[in-house]
Every structure is written in C-alpha cells, then in structure tokens.
Amino acid sequence: MASSVETLEFQAETRQLLRLVIHSIYSNKDIFLRELISNASDALDKLRLESLADSTVQADISDLHIALEVDRDARTLTVRDNGIGMSRDDLVDLIGTIAKSGTAGLLEKIKESQDAAAAQSLIGQFGVGFYSAFMVADKVTLRTRRAGTDAGTRWESDGEGTYELQAVDGLPVGTSVTLHLKPVDGEDGLADYLAGWKIRQIVKQYSDFIRWPIRMAAEQTEGATGTENDGDAAVETLNSMKALWARPRSEVTEAEYTEFYQQISHDWLAPAETIHMRAEGTFEYEALLFVPAQAPFDLFSRETKRGVQLYVKRVFIMDDCEALMPNYLRFVKGVVDAHDLSLNISREILQHDRQIQAVRRRLVKKVLGAIKTTQANDAERYGKLWDQFGRVLKEGLVEDTDNTQALLELVSLPSTHDAERPTTLRAYVERMKDGQDAIYYLTGETRATVENSPHMEAFTAKGYEVLLLSDPIDEIWADRIPAFDGHRLQSIAKGQVDLDEPADGDQEADSERSKREQDFVALLPWLTTALAEQVKQVRLSSRLTTSAACIVGDADDISPTLEKMFRATGQEMPPVRRTLELNPSHPLITGLRTAHATDPADPALPEIAELVYGGALLAEGGDLPDPARFTRLLTTHLTRTL
Ligand SMILES: Nc1ncnc2c1ncn2[C@@H]1O[C@H](COP(=O)(O)OP(=O)(O)OP(=O)(O)O)[C@@H](O)[C@H]1O
C-alpha cells in the first residue's frame, strides 16, 4: 500500500526566492544543470568521506558517479547520483528552508532593486542551487535515500508555494532529481534540454573537471566515442575529470601541463612558465597559471580579454575573470579554483571581494616571481619572454604601485652600452661611472631617432651610458618612477645637464664659463624674443658637441612624443614651449652672434633663428608646425650662400 502524501509549505523566504528564480532573474538558464551536477558531486564527496571515516556506514562506494537520463516521451531530464542522499528531515531542512543567515534582508534588497543585473548580482552572493531547476522545469520530483538508512522519500513541487513528501520503499542510496521540462522557448532562453548535444555542451562547459564521472546513455545515431558497455546500453562519460590543478604538483608531468595549457588557451606551443599553487587556510584555492611562449596577436587591442578562468570546486564559473589578474598581466592564462565562493558569484561582487583581492595580490607575486627566476637562471629564455611581453609588463610600472620594485628589477631596456642586447637597470647601475649620480635615458618615437638625437652628443662623447626608450609606454613610466636603487632616473632631454660641472673652486672653468656667457649676452635675449612663440627661453648648452642646437624641456614638462600621443587620442593640449639650447662653439651659432652684433636689425636674422629652431626640432624626431615655410626659408638662405 502506498504511503500517505504530506503537503508542506515552503518557508516564506524560500517562496520569495523561488518566485525570483522562476521569473527568470537569470538570463542564462543552462546553469541549472551545473547546479544540480555540483550538488550531486558534493553528495558523492560526502558519501565517500563518511564511509572512509566511519566503517559502520555500509555504503557501496565502488562506482560513485552521476547519471543523466533523458525520457523524450515524458519530457523529463533526470540527474541521478549514488551519493549520500537525504532523509525526510534533511529534505524539509535543506530544500524547504533557506538556513543561510541574512537571507531575509537580502531578499528584501533584491525585491527593491529594479535592475535585473543588480538583482542577479545580489542573489549570486548566496546562490540558488537546487531551486534553479525551476527555471527550466514546471515540476520537479526528487527521490532520495540517505546512506545507512532504508527509508526513501519522494519530494515533489511545482515551485509555487507547497511541496509534497511521501515515504517510498525500494529506492537505491542517493538522489535523483527529475525535471519535468517546460516547453522549448528560444526567446526565453529555454533550449532543448532533452537534446544530447545540448547536455554534452553544458557539461563540457561547466562541469568538465568534476571529479566523478558524469554518464549518459550514448545515442546510437551520434556515434559517440569513449563509450563503455554497461549491460545493454552503451554509456558515455561526458566529462574529462582531469582537473590538473587539484592534483599535487609532484604527480603531474610536464606533458600533462602542456596538454592542459593547450586545451584552455587554444595555443599550439608549450607554455613558457607554469605556476601551480595551492593556498590553504581561511580561503582555500588552487591556481594553475601559465605564461604563454608567444604573445597573442591582439595583446594591445582594446577588446583583449584578460584574466583567468574561475572555478568553484571544479565547477566552471567564468572565463576572463578580471578580478583575479591586473590588466598588465592580461597574457597570463590558467585556472583559479576557489573553494568557498557561491557558484553564482557575479563579476561585480568579485571585483570588490577582499579575499579575491588578496588572492590576486598573491597570484601577481607568484607570476612576477616565476619571471624573476627565469631571468636569474636562463638569460636566453628570459630574453624571449621579454620580447613577447616586456611592453605589457612595463604597463605595470604605471598601474601597479605595489610591485614597482619587482617590476623595475625585471625590465630589460635597450641602451648605448650594447647595440644588440638590452640591459637591466641593475646591470646599468653596476656600470655607472664614478661620480655619475643618475640613470640617464632618452625617450622618442623610434630607436633611431633616440640614438641620433643631438641630446645624446655630450653623453656619447663622455662615455655615459644612456637608456634608449622608444616604446610609447616608456614615456609614461620613466616620468613617474623617481629612482632605482637610490639613483635618480633622469631624462637627458629635460632640465639642465652639465657633465662638465666644475669642481668647487675650479676657477679656470668658472671663468671660461662666464666669458662664454658674456660673449652671448646680447644674442640670447634677442633670440628669446624672436622665437617667443616657439620657446620659453634660449640658453647656452653643454650637452652638444657637433649639433648647433637642441630643444630641452623642464623637469616637469611632458615630452614631445607624449604630447603627440595625447593629441592623437583627441585630448586638448596647450602647446608646450620648451627651451632652445645653443652650442656656443658651433660655427652657425658663432656666425649668428657676429651677424647680430654687426646689424641687429638685419631682416635675415629672425629667419635664421627660425631655421635653427626648426633644425633642432627635426633632429630630435619632431614635426615642424609649417614644413613648407621651413623649406622656403632654407632654400632662400642656401641660395644666398652659393
Ligand atoms: N543531490 C543531492 N544529494 C544530497 N544532498 C543534496 C543534493 N542536492 C542538494 N542537497 C542538499 O541540499 C542542500 C541545499 O542545496 P542547494 O543546491 O539549494 O544549496 P547549496 O548546494 O548548499 O548551496 P549553493 O548551491 O549555493 O552552493 C545542499 O547543501 C545539500 O545538503
């Protein structure tokens, strides 16, 4: 005789939550299967643990698995496990009630929030788990028997306010959840959840690394591979179960890491770096990260995705989890599996989660540490890595003030020391000349313009090493980083540079300088006025040996390349007037001085001044404001000399 059916009411909060779930706060309905598989997997874990810990629990743990069963005629999909199961009381407590503290308040907030995305993100904080079944089913039947007991229970509900309970005999240990599926409705995001391909796709996407086999009867017509014969019907295992990150490092081979990396990154090369770690304590997680050997083609595109995949206990949650990786490490691929997050956690919540921020800090340190180790041990491999990712890593010098020091140790920069090989800042410092108090650098648009710029002349003549920076990002970080290892970073195109600084009391040098100043006492103010629109000052230079003139900025002026970059992005910029420096021993400059002394009103003089300024601008790789005028003046004055 069948036992009696009891009808119970859902707790008030559960009713509210169900209503929210049914009225589709989730646009992605596919996740119901992820939730049910995750519950089944937890139940299998629990049974195994319990039977290992307590030998009186007589449970068969020889073939723990999850089975997905489709009944086309009845339009049902069943998720079955042979895990721990639930007693009648468990069902009332766990499924009929939400025991989580703060639920009522949270539901209140969700109700108040008009915006679906905000509601989804709020609800993601504690997850909907089992109730998500009601997104795709208008009735759910759950049959379960707790391991170690004989009593089975049937639970059934349409999610509307009440549920039925009935004692049932003869159930196997474990739980089956049968979904009486709603009709397919593409517009409402309801796919055909009876279709084998759809089920396979969802399992592959979200549950591939679940540690227990997820089985389904193979469809003869689809010629499934990887099947095994289970009695009459062929059975297919849908998930790979290969969550490498969950295994101890010592048990994973290099080839397995490579295969896994290739699977998640769609790269065909082996990774350059593999970082595998496990954190225990209050917030447990495992991370398996890779630095690719080759930069993706879209590394600098605005649409580049960044971040690693996030899993919660082997269940896939999201791709490109930007909360876990800063922008400048966007090339890092891999997986982070955090144990204590809700399956429905949203991107917004993750961004502000303190524990996630702590995980991110730790991951960044690990990645930089791995790169540092390669730098120390294998110069060639490091060189290749820097070639691929150096430009992005330099963005970290602007973005990530916590790791400035670590990043400064990593940077590898072209310098006048070696035309072929770049240098680290540390190696530069070790080579610094006695008495040199700054690390010199020059920025520009290309290496050639930087190398040939007039600013370099005195430094080359005196044998001072100069870093040649021609990446756009160099303009920004070099300006912001004040020093490395106690040595100032100094642009040689900014401020006063005097490599011949006379020692205190060097009277000979002092008097030579003041004589020179005296010689130009009339020309300099006149030139400053003649070129007032272009420059703020004209002065004598000590950085030139062969060129007639160069243009320099003040310490806090932005560089011309940066000015150009800002304009290119459409930003309004007031023109930056810099200082024109003249080489006092150049014949053009001494000639100009003589001509000015002879006839200060000569109309040719302002034109020569303009040519001197234009020439200096061209020499540093700059753009003339009016190239046609410059060429006309040049032609006129050249013609006169012939
Ligand atoms: N297949 C199952 N076998 C045994 N117990 C289950 C099963 N499914 C659900 N339960 C029990 O019901 C409880 C509630 O499930 P539900 O999916 O609503 O939330 P959860 O899994 O605890 O939380 P979340 O989904 O946010 O991780 C579970 O904690 C578990 O104890």
UniProtKB/TrEMBL annotation:
<comment type="similarity">
    <text>Belongs to the heat shock protein 90 family.</text>
</comment>
<keyword id="KW-0963">Cytoplasm</keyword>
<keyword id="KW-0346">Stress response</keyword>
<feature type="domain" description="Histidine kinase/HSP90-like ATPase">
    <location>
        <begin position="28"/>
        <end position="185"/>
    </location>
</feature>
<feature type="compositionally biased region" description="Acidic residues">
    <location>
        <begin position="498"/>
        <end position="509"/>
    </location>
</feature>
<comment type="function">
    <text>Molecular chaperone. Has ATPase activity.</text>
</comment>
<dbReference type="InterPro" id="IPR001404">
    <property type="entry name" value="Hsp90_fam"/>
</dbReference>
<dbReference type="InterPro" id="IPR037196">
    <property type="entry name" value="HSP90_C"/>
</dbReference>
<keyword id="KW-0547">Nucleotide-binding</keyword>
<dbReference type="InterPro" id="IPR036890">
    <property type="entry name" value="HATPase_C_sf"/>
</dbReference>
<dbReference type="Pfam" id="PF00183">
    <property type="entry name" value="HSP90"/>
</dbReference>
<comment type="subunit">
    <text>Homodimer.</text>
</comment>
<dbReference type="InterPro" id="IPR003594">
    <property type="entry name" value="HATPase_dom"/>
</dbReference>
<feature type="region of interest" description="A; substrate-binding">
    <location>
        <begin position="1"/>
        <end position="347"/>
    </location>
</feature>
<dbReference type="InterPro" id="IPR019805">
    <property type="entry name" value="Heat_shock_protein_90_CS"/>
</dbReference>
<keyword id="KW-0067">ATP-binding</keyword>
<dbReference type="InterPro" id="IPR020575">
    <property type="entry name" value="Hsp90_N"/>
</dbReference>
<dbReference type="InterPro" id="IPR020568">
    <property type="entry name" value="Ribosomal_Su5_D2-typ_SF"/>
</dbReference>
<keyword id="KW-0143">Chaperone</keyword>
<dbReference type="Pfam" id="PF13589">
    <property type="entry name" value="HATPase_c_3"/>
</dbReference>
<feature type="region of interest" description="C">
    <location>
        <begin position="565"/>
        <end position="642"/>
    </location>
</feature>
<feature type="region of interest" description="Disordered">
    <location>
        <begin position="495"/>
        <end position="515"/>
    </location>
</feature>
<protein>
    <recommendedName>
        <fullName>Chaperone protein HtpG</fullName>
    </recommendedName>
</protein>
